[in-house]
Amino acid sequence: MTAIRVLVVDDSVVVRKLVTDSLSADQEIEVVGTASNGKVALARVEEYGPDLVTMDIEMPIMNGIETVRALRQAGHRMPIIMFSTLTERGAASTLDALAAGASDYVTKPSNTGSLAASMQEVERELIPRVKALVGRRRAFAPLPTQSPKAASSTPSRVTLRPEPPTTGVRALLIGSSTGGPEALSRVFSSFTSPLPVPVLMVQHMPPVFTAQLAARLDRLGPTTVVEAADGELLRPGHAYIAPGNYHMVLRRGGGAGFAAGQVIELNQDPPVSYTRPSVDVLFRSAVKAYNGSLLGVVLTGMGADGRTGCQDLVTAGGTVYVQNESSSVVWGMPGAVAQAGLAHRVLPIDEMAGAIVRRLSASLAGGAAWR
Predict the structure, then answer these.
(1) Residues 222-253: pLDDT tens digits?
(2) Catalytic site positions
(3) Which of 110, 133, 327, 357 is most buried by a 10 A CB count?
(4) Who's near 18: CB < 8 A, 6+ residues apart?
(5) Exposure pattern of 117-131 as b/e (b: 16+ CB <10 Å)?
(6) Which stretch of DSSP H or E encloses residue 252?
(7) In a 3-state reduction of DSSP, which class is residue 115?
(8) Could you tell me if 79 and 140 are in contact, meaning their C-beta atoms sit under 8 angstroms apart?
(9) Cα distances (angstroms) measured from residue 192 to each of 111, 223, 352
(10) pTM of the entire structure?
């Protein structure tokens, strides 16, 4: 396998060198060029034909969002990783870039104290994404004798579980990571009415970003989407996203009647599956609260977070749907669940909302009480 060819785009000389040196430390990656703004980047893409582009957001002449949009309109399909600041404005711009066609993002180092520490942080966050995104693209590249359609639709071999009987589903759980913001946007924009159960979500994102994502999803459809707050009581038709850097679990409310329902609890216990928030933590907590009366959904993402939680969910009698490989940006998390034999359905992202609604509607028709 040849080295991964990367183009680094940033208006800061210091950041260009930081990213270039960090990537060049890995023998499997070659930085083939740099650009100081989007206009130069468009020309360099044509000149070098990189496998992947890292892209700053705030740049003169042509910013990162405009550049991503121009590259996609020109037919370039290489992965693009945005290099973002950990601010409210940076989070909003990053989500705009993902909506325009960027593949993923990393946040710029802050308060690291030294160049060496900054390089280590960039290496830790950026290099695994570069390899995962380019590896997936190469895996789906058509062979000389194949059409692109045939290559991209070849299914991975998984064994599906028989779907359990339509019993009461009292909550919908969703886990996602790389590519998740756009996958979630497609799911939530497809709902035509509020869901009859509460939705609990973990998207691997830093603080600030999760609040911005919740606000965007809230605007897309009839479901009320919020960043979860400690002590918040679950309500049907509402979706709660775990805040960045906090695990989200459930506990029984201490009141009577409706107030005795499930309450969100946030904590900063150690990372699980290398992440906080963790899909595994949410799923396992929900199983303790609702036993098997759950529908778990695992969308695109790196790693295997969610596999252990899905094992608990399936053992308790719950249902698991995962996003299929060809529609995932990275088939790490859903692939880990599917290849472990824990999925009842493997679905393209554009079919996920319909499948969720049908499962919940069948459960509601059976007289299930969501609490």
Answers:
(1) 999 999 999 999 999 999 999 999 999 999 87
(2) 177, 204, 305
(3) 133
(4) 109, 115, 118, 119, 122
(5) ebbebbbebbbebbb
(6) strand 247-252
(7) helix
(8) no
(9) 44, 9, 13
(10) 0.89
